[in-house]
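Posting this for the archive.
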Amino acid sequence: MGGNQTSVTEFLLVGFPLSPWMRVLLFGVFSVFYAFTLLGNGVILGLITLDPRLHTPMYFFLSHLATVDIAYACNTVPQMLVNLLSPAQPISFAGCMTQTFLFLTFALTECLLLVVMSYDRYVAICLPLRYSTIMSWGVCLTLAVTSWISAVLLSLVHLVLLLPLPFCGPQKVNHFFCEILAVLKLACADTHLNKIMVLAGAALVLVGPLSAIVVSYSYILRTALKIQSAEGRQKAFSTCSSHLGVVGLFYGTAIIMYVGPQHGDPQEKKKYLLLFHSLFNPMLNPLIYSLRNREVNAALRRRLEKERLS
């Protein structure tokens, strides 16, 4: 980051090529979505914290997922909203590197948390008599902390490889935030190793965990189909449907962006995919869990009733 290596001290985020009136319109729409993201995930966190009936491993991991979604959105959306009103706003070199690091950290943490949550559902449905023993609070805390630490360490690897690169112009990042591949295109050096590490890291934390989730749910499906009562089968599937919905949204867009085939110049398409990934995914996650989860709905009703009576 010394002066003899890096002549660029700030970057310009290009964002989306839009007319002024469209920028104002999208600023309003995205601001509402951002508010719903914070509100929805905040409500999930509040309910899990305040309702003793939700003090279970499943909701412990869900609270971490809600925390990640809030942080994920806060890292990218405010900068995008600023750029919609004032296009090509500069971001400092240090700020850009920090945003890249945090984006990778939160994305990787969500990947690992989704795997942990699938394992929790596997134990709950396939090994119900041993659930309290296997998923003890010590184990849950270890799994959550390991997910966070692993994500931080993997992100640090990318950051350590990115920081020494010289950036001598142009300084325009063709994205609405400092996404690592968009930043690498501005480096005045060979970035082959960096791109290999991005691809390898994506394969490690996307393909590998997704395979583990598929294996977990294959066992869950086999066990659920053996349940005699229709009510029991419905309960087993209902506890997994919310998680599967979140997994589909997250892994579907992430694999297309970082592991899928690269034909032509997919940069513009990837920007819109990452917009969905950064703005809509965190907003939809609490809606999926609240609409599809009876316990969350019941906890919300109890809390609203308590507030009304008080």
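The chain has a mean pLDDT of 84. Strands lie at 10-13, 90-92, 172-173.
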